[in-house]
Description:
By secondary structure, the chain is mainly α. The protein has helices spanning 28-45, 47-85, 104-115, 117-123, 126-133, 147-161, 163-182, 194-197, 204-240, 245-293, 296-312, 314-317, 326-353, 360-391, 407-413, 418-448, 457-478, 482-525, and strands at 16-19, 22-25.
Amino acid sequence: MPLNNYPTKHKTGQDNIRLAGLDVHNPVFFMSALLAISFIGTTLMFPATTSAALLAVRDWILNTFDWLFVSTVNIVFAFCIFVGLSPMGRLRIGGRDAKPEFSRLSWFAMLFSAGIGIGLMFYGSAEPLAYFTGWFGTPLDVEARTADAHRLAMSATIFHWGINAWSIYAVLGLALAYFHFSKGLPLTVRSAFYPLLGERVWGWPGHIIDTLAVIATLFGLATSLGLGAQQVASGLNYLFGVQGHLVLQISIIAFITLLAILSVIRGLDRGVKTLSNINMALAAAFLLFVIIVGPTAVILSGALENTLAYFGDFLSLSTWVGRTDTEWFHGWTVFYWAWWISWSPFVGMFIARISKGRTVREFLFSVIFVPLSVTVIWFSAFGETALFQAENGIGSLPGGINEVSLVLFQVLENLPWAAASSSVAIILILVFFVTSSDSGSLVIDSITAGGKLDPPVTQKVFWAIMEGTVAAMLLYGGGSQALQAMQAGAISAGLPFTLILLACCVGLWKGLSEDSKSLRKLEKKK
C-alpha cells in the first residue's frame, strides 16, 4: 500500500469531454491539437518563411540560453545521483507491496526501443566521424584527424548519449511514476507539481504544463522520425537507386505512421512490447555482426579506452564557461540537451507506465547507468569501425562526410555481406521508427485524455497521424536545410520545458522526502 495519498478530490478524467466516441481533456487536447494543426497549416502555406523562422529562433536560443540547457542537465544528473543514494532510494513505486509488471529484460527492451533506437542507428557511425573530421567543428577545438580528435570523437559522442542524458529521462519518469502509482494522481506531467501547486495544479497552471509537454513531445519525436526517414531514404537510394528524395522521405513517414497505427490498436502489451523485444533481438544481432566482421581488436580495445576517455573528458565537456568551440558546442551539445529535454515527457511517461514495483534506487540507477554500457559498446563498434576506415583509406570515408544519413551504409559497404547487412539496417530503422511513433502516440494520448491510461483508440490514431504529419512538415518546410529545421524544432520546444524539468525536481524532492520520513517512522514503530 502507498504510504499516503494526497488529499485531492480530483478524479482522473473528470474534466474530460466525451463526444463522437472521444474522451478528451478540456482544454489540453484542444490547445495541443490547435497548435499542431496551426504549425502544419502554416508550413504548408509558407514553407520558406516557416523554415527561416525556425532557424532564427534556434540561433537566438543557442546564443542566449546555452548556459541554461547545460546547467539544467548537470543539476538534474546531480539530483538523480543524490536521491538514488539517499534513504529515499528505498521507496517503492506503487507502495511497499507493489510488484513489477514486466521482467527486467522486457523493461530494458521497451526502454531502449522507445528512447534511443533511431538515434543510435543514425548517429552510431556518423557522429564520431563528424567530430574526427571536423565536419561541423571539433570538440574542445582540437585539431581534426589527430589522435586527440580520435579520442574526443568517441568520448564526446558517448557524453551526448551517456549518464547526463539519461538522467533527464530518469527524473521525469520517476516523478510521473511515483505520483501516479504511489500517490494516486493522474499520469500526466502536471501531477509532479502537486507538492508545489496543490489543487491549483488542476487549473490553468496544469493545463499549460501538460500542453507544453505535448508540444515538446511532438517536436522531439518528429525530429527523430524525420532523421529515421532521411536515413531509410538515403539507404534505399544508395543500395537500390530509389529516387525522389523528399517525396520518398514523406512516403516513408506515411508508411510507418500506418504501421504505427496498427501497433497502437494492438495496445501496450501486444504492440509496443512485442515490437520492442523484436528490436532488441535484431539490434543485438546487428551489433554482434559488426563486432565480428569489423576491426574486432580495435572495437574491443576501444570500448575500454573510450570509457576511460569519457570520464576523463567529462568535466571539460560539461561546462559552457571558457569554451572556444562555440560552433561545435551549440550545434551538437546544446542541440542534444534540448532534444533530450523535449523527448523527456514522451520517454519519461512511457518509462513510468512500465515501472510500477521498482524501487526508486533501482529505477534511477537502471535508467541512468545501464544504457551507458550499451552506449559504449554500440558507439565503439560502429564509431571505431568508421574511424578505422577513415584513418586507413578504406572506401569513401577518408574523404569525410557528404551526407550524414549515408554514413552507416558507407561503413557497411566496406564489410562482408554489405547488401544483406544494409537491408537489415533498413529493417531495423523501420521497426525502431514504428516503436517510437507507437509509444509517442500512447504517451501524448494519455496526457490529452487527462491521465487516462486506456482512452478510445480513435484518439491514439489521431496523435499517431499528428506525429507523422509534423515530421513531414519539418522535412517539407526545411527543404535543403531539413536537418537544421528538425533541430530547430526540437530546440524551440525544449526551451520552455527546461524550466518545467527543474521545477519537477523540486516537486519530486518534496514528495519523496515526505514519504521517506513516513517510512522511517513506520519502521520505528515496528
